Request: fold
Amino acid sequence: MIRFHVYRTQNFGKTFEALGEGDSEMFYSSPVHIQTHGGHPQRTLSFLHCLKRSWTQHHPQDITLSLLGKELCGHLTPLPLDMVLFSCWDTNKQDLNLNTDNACSILKDILTNIPIPGLLLGKDGTCLCGNPTLYKEFGIPKDVHLPTKLFKIYSASPQSYERLQKEISEASPYRSHIFYWKTSNMLPGGHTELGLHLHAPFQDQDFVIALISDTLISPEKQRLQLYEQIFNSAMEGIAIFRHDGLIQAANPAFCDLVGLPREHVLGLPIHSFCSNKHHAQDYAKIIHALRRKSTWFGELQGAHSCGEEFPLQLSVSKLPLKLEHHQIYLALLHDVTSIKQKEHKIEEQAFYDALTGLPNRRYLTETLSSTIQCAQKKGQELALFFMDLDNFKTINDSLGHPTGDRLLQNVAQRMKERLPITTHVFRQGGDEFIVLVENGTGKDDARKISHQILKSFEAPFEIEGRRLYITPSIGISFFPHDAHNSAELIRNADLAMYHAKSCGKNTYRFYSRKLNTRAQKRLEIENALRSANVEKDFYVLYQPIHDAKTQRISGFEALIRWNQEGSVPIGPDQFIPVAEETGIIFALSEFVLRTACRETQYLLKEGLGPLRVAVNLSAQQLYQKDFADRVQRMLRETGLPPAALELELTESTLIPNIRQTARVLQQLNKEGIRIAIDDFGTGYSSLNYLHRLPIQTLKIDKSFIQDAPDSKLAGNLVATMSMLAQNLGKRIVAEGVENLEQFEFALEKHCDEIQGFYFNSPVNHETLYKLLKEDRIQHGAMSQLPPAPTC
Reply:
């Protein structure tokens, strides 16, 4: 039995595929069925002619195979660019008994039908013949006979020829291999290295088929091709240049980077693609650095052919070779535009406030120190303004944080638009902003800027259909007068800002060393407040309010006091602002309201009415969602009639959210509770809220009353406010009346009620009871009074 193997090479020798195997009986059928090595029977091959001559006309072992075809949809197609090799041997290890002439004839027929250049060789390397394809592709005339010593003649060296001889002698039916033959000179087609696919088809014959191709690449050339593919397909721009900067090679990515075709790039200086005006000098520095070190890395500004600039990352390496006596360098270029954009975005997130877009506290901290150092060297002054929004928490609590955020955005935008370009605005955090002015000229300039800031807040902010009013308190400190470093400068401006708040808000104050003492005092107050027991450490006093015409006591105002045994008394003007900032005001206000309701109800039950008690409210209380319900519940618990309670609010409490204020006050007034505006004339005295809000009483601030006798303007203001109240049907109370002259002035201006030391200072509940008893007897309001209360 004769066995044979059929092989097909993919892409001429790079991949071998064993198509199948069979035996001699298969030659009787056409097309031939072959069992593939994959184990699946399929009709994969069909011989164009299995026998060159009929099987019976020649020796039984005389096998002639020709070009194989592939059966596709029932049609035989040739195998272009592929080749088929075969091996034949007797399975009994016996010779096929082919004579030399028959074997040579068979192999010549095979070569003639193979569509690639081929040679028939002897085992000694003798060239016997070449096929037509060889003559055609190598341009050899048909009548020229190839030299028998062809390989010896054209081998690059004796060693190369000896290796080839060895490979030819070892060829066998069981082994097909490739040998890379280096030629000594240029063969037709410009080839200096050829691939020889060596195969000995017959077991007992000394014939070798050598198929030739320049596509069979040696490992060295494969590596060079690989490097070339890497060079051309790299996403980074790569350029090879000489010591003088002239580019010798550039890959497509480099050409795309600079916007020029390769033929225009070659020969240009590599530094011509940098936008820096001093690029030649920069290139010289890079080359100088490469003398000390074999690599250089840095960033430059690249230039596109259209003139557009872009950030460029450049890496240069000195290569260990020379070209035409020139040192060669490898440059890797990377457009880092997207990286820079991402870095810029990260920097914005780190150094800029996401809500307002202003530089944030971190930016201020990192730049203020260097700014101070620069000012110190130049002998200049810096002014730092620390600004905090008054009652911003009230807006957040009542309208929600989204509205508060929109307000902060509007504030930031207005400050950027209204302040001089020489100022730098930062968001410190929350509702705090910092304005930094370099090269300031002292307090006069600082006052001008402060007035600009305050003026920018006069107009309301339109937020989601609402008109919101808000004011700033500003503290100012100077370098080097007030501080010697950034932390001190900010802290001292912060202290000045709190001083501005304590002075009535919506104003500015300069830092002074006294504020350090005040800050320490404030901290002590806060600590004491947090550790105090509201029910035990605080108490309520009452200052009577008199009818201006009859001088009869018509009511009183409840005032909280702090009892600190063994300590210096702390007045309400000191601890109430701290309580408002820390949230302790809720507990204090509820204590005052409950105590005043309970003790006033006692006085009413004792027959000392009619009376009303006035209780001050903070902004935080007013904007509690259940505030109205809490007040009504407290009235029910104490039994005080709603008409006997008057709630006092300042104008600054009303303005930030007029709608919310109106809704709460209308709910309270509907139950019979009276509403009064305290310190009238010192805030936003607006006819709008007088019209929209259910207000029954206006209390003129004591500053107008105390200045009125000596100030014509103050007197006119009081007269105007009194006339306004009468025309609107409001009662008007003159606060802070301390002497007869002020009392007579209040009467002259038609004030309805009087409150002040001229009549009474604040007293406790027991003293108030006695005063009311005497007052009622004096005015004939009662004939018999009960004993003094002990509650």
Q: What stands out?
A: The radius of gyration is 53 Å. The CA atoms of residues 690 and 728 lie 8 Å apart. DSSP finds 27 helices and 33 strands in the chain. The longest strand covers residues 309-323.
